[in-house]
Amino acid sequence: MKTYEAVVIFTSDENPYHEAHEFVKKEFETAGIVVTKEEDMGEKLLAYPVGTHDRGRYVLYTIEATAEALKAVSRTLKLRAEVLKHLITRQEVRAR
To answer: pTM for the full model?
Structure first.
């Protein structure tokens, strides 16, 4: 398994955010993805409107996963209305 960083932008509405946040954590667990770190970066103004939303709640996850698991979770996140956007990138290992 490799280490990745995933940024998920949720709607800024409080109740839907909590439901979607729990959903994402369960999806990670179901796919066999291990969350090593989770950081709530707070509510921020989006660079461009997504639908009717101009603000979003950013959460940064550091995860360990396989490529197949990431593809499955990415497809699921695209279908969730409370998840405005998501981006998953491989974390670089710096040589000393």
So the answer is: 0.88
- What is the fold of 2-90? Alpha-Beta Plaits (3.30.70)
CA distance 58 to 36: 17
Residue 63 has pLDDT above 90, yes or no: yes
Which amino acid is located at 35 in the chain? V
Alpha-carbon distance of 36 to 34, in angstroms, equals 6
3-state secondary structure at position 32: coil
The rounded Cα 13 to chain-centroid distance in angstroms is 16
Residues 10-19 have pLDDT tens digits of 998 888 899 9
3-state DSSP of 50-85: ECCEEEEEEEEEEEEECHHHHHHHHHHHHHCCCEEE
